Amino acid sequence: MSIRTDEATGAAPPAGTSDIHDPASDRVGRIETHGIEAVPESDRHGRPSSLFWVWMSANVAYLYFVVGGVLMLLGLPLWEALAITVVGNLWWALVGWLAVSGPAAGSPSVTIMRAMFGVRGNTVFGAGLGVLIGLFYEVINVAFATLAALALLGAFGIGLPPGGEWAVLLVVGALSFVIGVYGHATILALAPWFSAALAVVFAVLAVFVFDTADWAYAVEPLPVADHWALVMLGFAIVASSPLSWGTGADYARYLPANVSKRKVAGYTALGGFLPAVLIGALGAVAGTAIDMTDPQLTIGEIVPAWFTPVFLAMIVLSSIANNVLVAYSTGFYAQALGARVSRAATTVVTGVVATAAAGWVLFLTPSFLDVLGASLELSVTVFGPLVSIYAIDIVLRRNRYDGRALADTSPASPFWYRGGVFPAGAIAMVVATAVAVMSANTTLWVGPISQALGGADLSAVVGPVLAAALYAGLWLTIDPYRDPAKRPAATSDPHAVIIETTDAAASARTQEEPA
């Protein structure tokens, strides 16, 4: 039996897809109607350059200022903190590479990952982890924005009644998710304005920071092993931000299928890399002049009084802008868990959960910054393997994805594999994550591999490299792709996915779980 999904066949698309042209599906000011299904060619539009502003607006963010300060709190010299900021953010090149799968499939990243983990496996490794990652960063953004909003009210002498901080949290939460509910077109329209406003504030801040920086700043020398352990820990913290963005396809999927891959990858990577490096470096330089444990409070030591409210307002706006992209993609991930509701609805639900969690972290835990630091240190052990498997799959398939085939979740799907799980993806993810955890050296956990290496934290390197190598090796040696004739890259049609099976195998698979 030959199962072929190809736009040229004229066959009806699988359940969950739509070939109906809907000109209102992606318009500014209207709630986007497309979800995790493939976007029809008739609805494709736009230019790769728009991706630069999308990623720029999301990453002109206060979080990078904090991360730059954290590098200084670790006790690193300024020049090393700056170098780590640049090198750690080189992972943005990988984020750009992931984005090229969007125009190819016309689908969001969580749908494309069914090719790597299988229909059922993706529920755990794609959608499940995606929801957790999304909620993690939504909580961070809501918490930052709430703290800044409370400080801003205090700067204007506005007192709050008992419990008033919870009301501020709710307002911030609502503002953080409303744009994500509207979706793609509205995000693209607002992105340049967010980018410009935030960039101006950071540019003014840079003037004050560089004017007061201690360029002769020195730290106490450490033993070589301890020093390199701090360097690798700092690298892991910086790398955790770009490695968390395995969602590049979400914002590129409306582009025509024949768009330049180089431009899609370049504009995506540059939009994230530039603000992450510049703002992170600014945070590191600020760390030579003030205590970066809580820069919202200490920034007043190096800026005029009139600028403090501007700085706090910037934190609120940048956190909301970052949450726009995070909330949008988290809605897709939640939808892919099997929820039979719209992306807009899942965005609202996950937003409510994140806001509640942010309240718990802010008002009911001892130290928000301690929780944040520990979380960032360990998060890279999961983020790294996940995005590297995605990246190497694009290479192996030569970026040939069929969005309609990926939307088919029945046992007849070419991505059903073995019981709905692709062993290559599942094994690579579990093994690489386990090794990364054992290679980590954080404030909460020191793995045995790190201990054997004198405390060096190699999780941000070992996890991604091992995951990619293991996945590629398994992909080439297990069914179905150990047969070169069955590999998607072997087909002549870039929009086709062909999987050959025997009639008996197809029948057995259908009996295992009816469609």
TrEMBL record:
It is found in: Membrane. Gene3D superfamilies: Hydantoin permease. Keywords: Membrane, Transmembrane, Transmembrane helix, Transport. The chain crosses the membrane at residues 52-74, 81-100, 112-135, 142-160, 166-183, 190-210, 230-252, 264-290, 310-333, 345-365, 371-395, 415-438, 458-478. Signal peptide: none annotated. InterPro entries: Pur-cyt_permease, Pur-cyt_permease_Fcy2/21/22. It is a multi-pass membrane protein. Residues 1-25 are annotated as: Disordered. Its main location: membrane. Belongs to the purine-cytosine permease (2.A.39) family. This is Purine-cytosine permease family protein.
